[in-house]
Amino acid sequence: MKLPPDTPGTSGLSHPPIPVESLAAAWRQTAGAALRSARACPHPVVATQGHAPRTDDFIATLVFEAAVHYLDITVAFPAA
Length: 80
Fold this sequence. Notes:
Blueprint: H1 20-40, H2 55-74
């Protein structure tokens, strides 16, 4: 689905806007994959960006970051 060029909140974007339906579908797919990976991880600690957090803390951080970025993205959509 392509948005019309005059869609409110999309002026000045350096890339084409993502329709809410596509964003939601990508969110569901990515969230499901993240949950399956988290459940399957046998390691108590993971290495990332020079740190070694416990796996459950790392997953909680990723979930929080994803939620914040999702809110950042959807604020441009009037119906979100």
